[in-house]
Here is the input.
Amino acid sequence: MKRIVALKTVLGVSIFGMLFSGYLSYQELFRKTTDEVGCSPVGTPGTIFGFPPCVYGFFIYFLLVIIALLGVKGDKGDKGE
Here is the structure.
């Protein structure tokens, strides 16, 4: 597999992951939920340092998007081997 194809694949998967975890983060942090839904409020058990794990996933995917974009941008002059 050529390097540019691999970077574009990582970029696509990272964008999807960022959108998915961003949606989940929004649901957990900003949407008002009832007790029937079963979502843990911020700071309760099931959170990491007071935040749901999807928040950390969002920032990890965001970092991967940045790294993949830099790789694609820097690889344009290469042959992609």
Notes: The CA atoms of residues 39 and 71 lie 37 Å apart. Residues 3-29 form the longest helix (27 residues).
